[in-house]
Amino acid sequence: MNLNNFTAVAHDDERLAPLRAEVRRFLAEERAAGAFTRATGWDHWDPEFSRKVGAKGWIGMTWPRRYGGQARSSLERFVVTEELLAAGAPVRAHWMADRQLGPLLLSVGTEQQKDTYLPRIARGEIFFCYGLSEPDSGSDLASIRTAGTKVDGGWAIIGRKVWVGYAHRAHMMNLFARTSPRSDEDRHGGVTQFIVDLKTPGITVRPIVNLAGEHDFNEIVFDDAFVPDDLVIGTVGNGWKQVTGELAHERSGPERWLNTFSLLVHLVDRVAQHPNERDLEKIGRLVSQLWTLRQMSFSIATLLEQGGTPNLEAALIKDLGTLYDQEVPAVARQIVSEEVRAGLSEEDYLGELLDRALYYSPSYTIRGGTKEIIRGVIAKGLGLR
């Protein structure tokens, strides 16, 4: 890993300031109109809000104009993403397609696939989920058992996927399935990616209710669901290489260290009311960590803008960022006692934000690859294994 990748390139360029101001005005207007509150959280599903973001040209920003994009830079996309997430805007509906599927289709998709899906994604009209994890497979995607069998005109899919976020609301899925047996010589070969219409006969979506009592995850059962040949993404059997090409986009963005930002903002306000040296030191550590992560993440956006594939650097951001998002609620519990929480008014979102962070933060080190897998990637990239 070249440590120079995390240097002064992470400073805002003056050219980005007008865009940042524009996004902030939009968010202030939407918040004033009651479209969302900071307590809502960016990972909430709101198709209407996604369509508004699409109308501003902020979905698929870096894509070519012929596919509905704006041909803008990765740094401009970073600015928009950062502002949306920091404000707690509900962007989950378009998130997966904007972050990962679009770049994947631009890289290996057919012209028909690009023309069919990218403009609709950019307008906030069609939403995707990802079918990766399976029962008993953990983060080892090479061990998946959902199988695609070649039939006349397409593929018959049989198997199960779990922890599929918002599959009950999405229109389509990027499915990762095995299309030829796994061999000891090539554990990662023989898997293929498919675009799957979730209304296809033979697909059952079952809810998984999380510890917070919310329905965001799902189990998906495929029982001879037919997927036509023209919905194969890229090359049959090359799915592993394709999906690893998405990792820099998935692991390095602000969503890896802004999940608890709204809680941090309210915590800072709380400490400012009754400051003491111990709490100020804790807040100072959190803020300095946040700024460092932000600078590193912005550097990766710069590398992507230059055409690089910084998978190792992205893995480092993911590991540090998700641990940070777990530290914020832990520190908040030290600063805000249960007695103080009991006396909070209904207008004070601090208690609600802290509860949500405590429920969700254990999952942060799992999303995008468990910390054990991520640290294995880092160790391998550094030549330590």
**Radius of gyration, rounded?**
21 Å
Low-confidence stretches: 1-10
Q: Based on helices, strands and strand pairing, what is the structural class? A: alpha+beta
H/E element sequence: HHHHHEEEEEEEEHHHHHHHH
**Head-to-tail CA distance between termini:** 14 Å
CATH homolog superfamily of the largest domain: Butyryl-CoA Dehydrogenase, subunit A, domain 3
The oligomerization state is single chain
CATH class term of the largest domain: Mainly Alpha
Binned, the helix content reads 40-55%
Helix segment tally? 13
Question: Which CATH-level-2 architecture of the largest domain?
Answer: Up-down Bundle
Which range does the strand content fall in?
Answer: 5-15%
Word description of this protein:
This protein is an alpha+beta fold and 385 residues long. The protein has 13 helices and eight strands. It has helices spanning 17-32, 47-55, 74-86, 92-108, 111-122, 239-244, 247-251, 261-273, 277-305, 311-335, 338-342, 350-364, 371-381; strands spanning 128-131, 147-151, 154-161, 172-178, 191-197, 203-209, 215-228, 232-233. The protein has a four-stranded mixed beta sheet. A four-stranded antiparallel beta sheet has the order 2-3-7-6, with no helix packed on it. α10 (311-335) packs antiparallel against α12 (350-364). It is globular and about 70 Å long. The model is unreliable at 1-10 (pLDDT under 50).
